[in-house]
Amino acid sequence: MKTGADYDWDHLIQERRVHRDVYTDPDLFEIEMRRIWGGVWTYLCHESEIPEKNSFKRVTMGKRDLIVTRDKEGVIRALYNRCAHRASTVCQEHSGKSATFVCPYHGWSYGVKGNLIGVPMPEGYGEDFDKSLLGLRQVPRVESFKGFVFATVNHAMPSLIDYLGIAGDVLTDFINRAPNGKLELGAGAWRNTYTGNWKLAWDNAADMYHVPFAHRSLVEMTLARSADKDAGASYARKPDAANIDSWSFEGGHTYLYHRPGMGPSIFERARPAPGTEIWANQLRKNIGDAEAEELLERVPGQGMNLNIFPNLMILASQVQVIDPITVDKTQLTWYATSLADAPDEANVIRMRIAEDFPNFGEVDDLEMFRRCWDGLQMDEVEWLDCSRGAHLSLKDTIDERGAIKASGTNEHTVRGYLGAYKQYMQQDAGAKTAV
Amino acid sequence: MKTLKPADIDFTDSSDYLTDEFYQQLHLERLQAREFGPSTDLGIVNECAALLAYEARCLDQRDYKAWLDLYTKDAIYWVPQDDDADIRSYINLMFDDRRRMEDRVLRLVSKFAHSLKPDRLFQRTVANVEAWDMAGGRRRALASQVAYEYRRGHSVEHYVYRTDHTLRQVEGEWKIAVKRCMLINMDAPVEPPTLL
Questions:
Q1: Is the peptide bond before B193 cis (omega within 30 degrees of 0)?
Q2: Do A206 and A322 share a structural domain?
Q3: How far is Cα A301 from Cα A48, in angstroms, rounded to an integer?
Q4: Residue of B91, B99, B187 with shortest CB distance to A336
Q5: Does residue A168 form part of some domain?
Q6: Cis geometry, peptide bond prior to residue A122 (ω within 30 degrees of 0)
Q7: How far apart are CA A251 and CA A232, in angstroms?
Q8: Which of A121, A129, A368, B17 is deepest in the core (most CB within 10 A)?
Q9: Same domain, yes or no: A187 and A135
Q10: Domain assignment of residue A153, yes or no
Q11: What's A186's domain CATH number?
């Protein structure tokens, strides 16, 4: 099997262009599944999805099928869904509550700490049969950041909070938009697949340049309905003129902040959703106009895309997760979030607004990914350009936190994460990753 | 495909019917459908089967104006992601009031809906229609459907789902008040369907 050392990274990833092999090479994908997925801190799930003792959720981390569990002390673990005996998976459910996982094949049973509880007909084993060595394998490092659970198999990674860096501060801002910072998942999810490499979705998440073109049908739909014939025009048609900024953070994280381009009220700016007027009026009646308006501003989410490398994307009110299946197949999951400490009315509106973009925007993004994938099949045409804004001096674009900041359409976001990616892919395969 | 312009749609400006009572009624009717015995009045079954077949043909032919005209002014078009969830606090794959149905159609007929280029072709089958007259002059029709979507250069996608229509008479004609489409794989990753 190839390793990162088999590739000429300075050739594949250059200052203003990236080679197609980075998207299409199946061997390179296999390296990513170790060096990137689990090689760096990888998002697994949110604590609200496993709220009680014995709650569990099944997730993937690259090719690892993991069961994230919570024990009675509240400790969260990520267990490999693989029986120590004959390798059968021991959990078939997406999520649930269970004190044990029993392998269906020969009846070996495990606890939520991964411990082997017992095996049927134990008299068939000798005295040297050591149950403590035959538990479910677990990911050695699992940490939470304010409810968001990440894991890595890489002992050389810094702590999660250091890995997140400034992206952690932005994530905190996002969480704090929920009243009392109480944000919950568990309100359902859209699950889409597309034909194409996972990085096509990642690139797109910090790309404000595509909006006027890829999402033109959505812009037209919005304009047809709106009395304001300029609705969204400055924002969606000329993003560079709309005070939208983008950042590249250390570690490969990226961030788009479009709130300043959205006018005085995000709530008013949101496209009309089913029943919005009724529930907003009820809310005003129940808690008073001033408090209701303040809360309603938090309902559609935030005008932002925060992308935590490699698989967690926060957009508006949603938590989006990338799951690469194969080099040419990717799953995207969009989790709706609710405001746990807000009145019901706010969440009814939030759910209906959350249904909007996956239906009317994401469908065209998925189509763009498919078309990029078609274009990438022609191996004589080797390069993808990512030079937009590269002529500008970086020195002028460093913000007060030391992060690179530029206009929303500047492709420093692509160049930035590729720089981090290049380093991760060149990590020494033997020394740094151990399970 | 009949050309449809935004000007052809009689826009609904407000969404004034999705009250808490309305949500609760949707939920009760969803539960009710699980208890139905066999349908016995073949006259009703045939009338409903004809309406469902016509709706399918409107969608297959992309005659979205005719499709919208089949629905009441306070209609719901609904594709749940979890058919047990309380959708006041849970998302759906699609949940459209009349206004959002119009928006959806507007996007579909836009020249710039890339996901529909080259033009998608549709063919769907409606089977196992059962139907009942309900209290309050309403009708319910359950059916099993398969929708196929094809684009040149792509494979044929297929969607397998049950439908549950609630019908109501408006000026002597049966109109669709609620359509709920329960995909067999509503919890799984899919290439998003255009309309079920």
A1: no
A2: yes
A3: 18
A4: B91
A5: no
A6: no
A7: 33
A8: A368
A9: no
A10: no
A11: 3.90.380.10
* Four-residue CA torsion sign, A404, A405, A409, A413: positive
Predicted confidence (pLDDT) per residue in B96-144, tens digit: 999 999 999 999 988 899 988 888 999 999 999 999 999 999 999 999 9
What does the pLDDT look like over A112-137, one tens digit per residue? 999 999 999 999 999 999 999 999 99
What is the pTM (predicted TM-score) of this model? 0.95
Which chain A residues have a beta carbon less than 8 Å from that of B97?
274-275
Rounded CA separation A111/A70 (Å): 11
Residue B89: exposure state from Cβ atoms within 10 A (0-12, 13-18, ≥19): middle
Structure tokens at A250: 């250390």
* Phi, psi (degrees; rounded to nearest 5) at A191: -125, 115
Q: Does A166 touch chain B (CB under 8 A)?
A: no
Indicate if the pLDDT at residue A434 is higher than 50: no
Of the three residues A100, A125, A145, the one that is the final residue of a domain is A145
Contact of A225 with chain B, judged by CB distance below 8 Å, is answered with: yes
Rounded Cα gap, residues A209 and A365, in angstroms: 13
- Cα separation of A12 and A380, whole Å? 15
CATH number for the domain harbouring residue A74: 2.102.10.10
Angstroms from B153 CA to nearest CA on chain A = 10
A118 by DSSP, 3-state: which? strand
| Partner residue opposite A192 with nearest CB, options B6, B112, B190 | B190
CA A55: distance to chain centroid?
22
A228-241 pLDDT, tens digit each: 666 555 666 777 88
Residue A159 lies in a domain: no
Q: Who has greater pLDDT, A262 or A329? A: A329
How far is it, in rounded angstroms, from Cα B30 to Cα B52? 19
Q: Are residues A87 and A229 in the same domain?
A: no
Query: Could you tell me if A133 and A212 lie in one domain?
Result: no
Determine the pLDDT at residue A430: 45
Q: What is the third-level CATH fold of B18-183?
A: Nuclear Transport Factor 2; Chain: A, (3.10.450)
Burial A23-57 (b: 16+ CB within 10 A, else e): bbbeebbbbbbbbbbbbbbbbbbbbbbbeeebbbb
How many beta carbons lie within 10 A of that of residue A430, not counting itself?
8
Reduce the DSSP state of residue A212 to 3 states and report it.
helix
Residues of B in contact with A332 (CB under 8 A): 189
Give chain A's domain count: 2
Find the residue in B nearest to A273 (Cα). B100
Q: Which domain holds residue A270?
A: 182-425
| Other CB atoms within 10 Å distance of the CB of residue A396 | 8
Tell me whether residue A295 is in a domain: yes
Q: Answer yes or no: do A53 and A133 share one domain.
A: yes
Mean pLDDT on A372-382: 97
Question: How far apart are the C-alpha atoms of A25 and A326, rounded to whole Å?
Answer: 11
**Tokens standing for residue B97:** 């009031």
> For chain B, which residues make up each domain, given as ranges?
18-183
